[in-house]
Amino acid sequence: MQKGRVKFRFAPGLRKPEPHTIPVSGAQKALRAMEEAERKGKFTPQTILLLVVNGLFAAANALSGTFVGVYLWKAKSNFAMIGFFTLCIYVAMALTFWLAGKWVKEYNKMYALRLGVAVSATFYLLVLLFGTRAVSYIWLLGTVQGMAAGFFWLAYNVVYFEVTGPKTRDRFNGWAGVLGSSAGMTAPWISGLVIVHMPGMTGYRTIFSVSLGIFLIGVIASFFLRNRKVQDDYAWGYMVTCLRQKQTPWHTVAAALVAQGFREGVFGFIIGLLVYISTADESKLGSFALITSAVSFASYWLVGKLLKPRLRKWGMLAGVLAMTLVIVPFFWQMSYLTLLVFGIGTALFFPMYSIPMTSSVFDLIGQSAESARRRVELIVMRELALSAGRVMGTSLFVAVTFWSKSPPVFTTLLLVIGASPLLSWWFMRGQFIAKAKSA
Question: How big is the chain by its Cα radius of gyration, in Å?
């Protein structure tokens, strides 16, 4: 043996260790592939599958959800009753978000996603069973639908955060809007024709039954989504802890979300009902949905493609101003024509408002390792802020419509509620500026 050199021999049967021999699981490989795709700004198979599940959920709800309010209105023509039904939905949804957060974080979020779809199917089954007696079970139906929405959207938003990133969120939201608009174009139009051409309530029972089938397909598709585990325990009071911090941006973001929910809570159900009241024809409501969803389809595709983080501030401002202005024709006349002007205008400009809002909030959740680790709690906080706004807006609607049936009062109420996105923009300005500087 040469001086200054040491030779090692390996015992018989032992192989010299080679670098990079640590086994990598399939889940780790998928995670690395997803991270690489995100760096390149590309969609992964999981991203596309989530879009499919979202599209199925949207299609089932578009097929029947558009006509639930009309179905209840035909049984009892009362705005306050419809508002109370919607209020039950939002209260149940908020409680479900908060309670299901522990399950979603510490166990399997995919079970919550599937349960949301399954409970949605249960809602339509109950409507079928109750028939014309459904108005006697408003609180139960509202609670069931609220639970369905809570389970589904909590799990969906957590998965959405995990399979997208800053480079793909605007585009994902654009495509989600495109799929939702596609469902909104065809499903209500078909439903309207079916209802009109079938005697009595047969048409309603038919479309509610078809929705059941689509929800079941959605459950099957969800089995192919992967569950990414989170190691920490669920913090029940994280929202309070977060908002107690003096320098957190969540103060203004939560306020913006409340303002967003304030409009959503009322406009989510009242416009379709007003179209039916103005025309007394379900097929007209289907045509209204077809036209406005076609406009929304094109707008979501274009905004999702062109709107960059540096343009969010002024793009959102233009969107909320236009969404407010299209309410003004109601002061002249509440008719199918003015409702169509409102519907087209909202469909055209709503993506300029919703895409920046959604992307900015989820960018904030993912801005640090600590906030990403608390993604479930922060998503619950987002949904609770939205639900608070929805409850406030709907409560105001119920109180005012119970107090007065005057058309000028009703129209002024719609303008006040419809202008709340201006507050969302005001509170989000700082986030848009910060994002533009870092882009």
Answer: 24
Instruction: Spell out the per-residue pLDDT of the chain, length 439, in tens.
Output: 444 444 444 444 444 444 444 454 554 555 555 555 555 557 788 888 888 888 888 888 888 777 888 888 888 888 888 889 999 999 999 999 999 888 888 887 888 888 888 888 888 888 888 887 888 899 999 999 999 999 988 888 888 888 888 778 878 888 888 888 888 778 888 888 888 888 767 888 888 888 888 888 888 888 887 767 666 788 888 888 888 888 888 999 999 999 999 999 899 889 989 999 999 888 888 889 889 988 988 898 888 888 777 888 888 999 999 999 999 999 998 999 999 999 999 999 999 999 889 888 988 888 888 888 888 899 899 999 999 999 999 999 999 988 888 899 999 999 999 999 999 999 998 877 766 666 5
Helix ranges (DSSP H) in 107-135:
109-130
Q: The dihedral of CA 57, 352, 432, 423: what is its sign?
A: negative
User: Token digits for 341?
Assistant: 């002007």
Of the candidates 70, 90, 92, which has an alpha carbon nearest to the alpha carbon of residue 82? 70
Q: In Å, how far are 39, 116, 156, 356 from 55, measured between CA atoms?
A: 25, 14, 12, 21
| Pair 350, 302: CB distance under 8 Å | no
Q: Give the span between the Cα atoms of 254 and 423, in whole angstroms.
A: 11
Q: How far apart (Å, rounded) are the C-alpha atoms in residues 256 and 268?
A: 18
